[in-house]
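Re: that chain you flagged

S.,

Sorry for the slow reply, it's been a week of failed gels. I finally had a moment to sit down with the sequence you sent. For the record, here it is as I used it:
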Amino acid sequence: MNDTLSKLNVLLVALRTNPFYAGKLAGTGLLDGVASLAEFSARCPFTTKAELVADQLAHTPYGTNLTFPLERYTRCHQTSGSTGRPLRWLDTPESWTWMLDNWETVHRKAGTTAADRIFFAFSFGPFLGFWTAFESAQRLGCLVFSGGGMTSVARLQAILDLRATVLCCTPTYAIHLAEVAAKEGIDLRRSRVTTLSVAGEPGGSIPATRARLAELWPGARVYDHHGMTEVGPVSYGCPARPGVLHVIERAFIAEVVNPATGQPVGTGGTGELILTNLGRTGSPLLRYRTGDLVQLSTLNPQLSTCPCGSTDLALEGGILGRVDDMIVVRGVNVYPSAVEEIIRRTGGVAEYQVRVSQRHALTELIVTVELAAGSSDCGLAGRLAGAFEASLALRVPVVLAEPGSLPRFESKARRWVREPG
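Prediction finished late last night. Pasting the structure tokens below so you have them in one place:
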């Protein structure tokens, strides 16, 4: 706790030269430091993505959240833009090292060592996660392979030929690779992959999706991870409790608040994850509203240690979804992660899409699914509809689609389509 407070105060004093936060915190006294983390949470306002977007629009191209002269920065990455205009984010060599330290923790907690060979099934673009994961694995001493610019078939062949032991990609793409392998007659039992390190979307902490991944990649354990381009690598999958994420608390101050009131939720409560990064001094974020919904573990780290030995904050079920992703259907709160859990648990589905429409002032869902290879369509739509009604107390129409007709995703999957009206 004292170490965290010390890091926070060093950061706050450094922000006197950061135009964005010097203006935002003017009159709060925070730039002189705080006596406790409770004081910081009570006095420091939230930072929102809307503020950051507005700042970059007003001060193109990078905004004013820069603590140092531009010459100090050596990396530029950007967000995916899936929730609006992409944010560009600059890093100094020091903040880059801090992020590699965090990702090295993610690798180590997944059991990865210098003896491993990691295949990264990403097209390396401007997004942060691919680069930090790759470079941290290099620093750890792993033999690393980039799958950028390759087809799915070529990637599968490379995984086999190069004897990769770790596959790093999104959970959706890991499922897609297995689907392609089945179609092409590639036996994944021949692969040496023992670890699936997945990130970029919910899935790695959803029980049914984890089970599906383990089924498709025989002998592999699934480890989830959560991070954001503007925040950095945040969490690692718990080695002892599948489906739990631990926040790297040496690097972050994490809070979970009620999205509507901004007040903290109690143990076991669900709310929005708020993050302050302590080592990205060149372009930091204080009490950032991530928009990610999480559930605090009922295991209190101040009273007992996680079975994995960690005292880091634990989040049950990983990232449950986005605050703005939750929809209300006939009085029932529906989260995308709950829909995916039902679909994967029912089985027999290769890919799916959810259409959200407004009819007569009511929100309606229609789920379209593709059959998995080798599955029969006998009763699948009915079984899924029954599963939705049993779990959500909702009647959800289920439509079967032709094989290969629904889109596939390499990076963050966008399965939910909101129809105008």
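What I noticed first: DSSP finds eleven helices and 19 strands in the chain.

Talk soon,
D.
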